[in-house]
Structure formats: structure tokens, C-alpha cells
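re: ur question from yesterday

yeah so i grabbed the chain u mentioned. its 116 aa long if i counted rite. heres the sequnce exactly as i have it in my notes:
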Amino acid sequence: AQFVDSGGGMVQPGGSLILSCAQNGFSFDKTFDNYAVIWFRQAPGKEREGLSCISNDGSTDYSDSVRGRFTISRDNAKNMVYLQMNSLKPDDTGVYYCSTDDYKYMGQGTQVTVSS
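ran it thru and got these C-alpha cells back, copy pasting raw so excuse formatting
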């Protein structure tokens, strides 16, 4: 994987997690700060769901399912992207991945489980 996804875990409903996405020493065909980066998740039995995107200029977008609860950010100096997740629900359970917006470069995923 070209990114390293981390920060997942098990949390109770209403809890919070911060996911991190780090460039994995891979030489991309352009510098990290030129990529828009997305977070998406894959839950068992469900289709892949795009959650959030941050462009190279820092503008952000969110799916309706996470807007107001999740916040995406990036630190181009560290080649990192983050996903702050608050007010987590059982439906947020899944494997979370970061990726360039064209899915050309991806992380290995990190498991998030929301359960009481």
C-alpha cells in the first residue's frame, strides 16, 4: 500500500477516534500536496462508501452520513491526512481507507468497530 492507515479500534457509540493516513515512503508521480485525498469505508455486506475528501487547496466535502460528525484535515509538511470522527454510531463500523481521489494510491485500511 502507498499509504499507511492507522488509528482504528473499538469504541462505544458516541465515542471518538482519529484516523491517520501517512505516505508510506512511496514515490508518487507528483508531490503529496498536489493530490486530493479521500477517506472511504467498506462494511461487510455493503458497498464502498466515500466519506470525505480534502483537495490540495484544503477545501473539504463530506457525505451526508458523516457531515457534522467527521472532520478531514491534512498536514502537507508531514504528508499526512487525518479523519477526526465524533459521535460514532454502530453503522460507522467498517474498514476505513484513505486514497488519492482517483483511487490510484491507497492505504491498507484500518478497522473501526462501534459497539456497546
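noticed a couple things. DSSP finds no helices and ten strands in the chain. also The chain has a mean pLDDT of 93.
anyway ttyl
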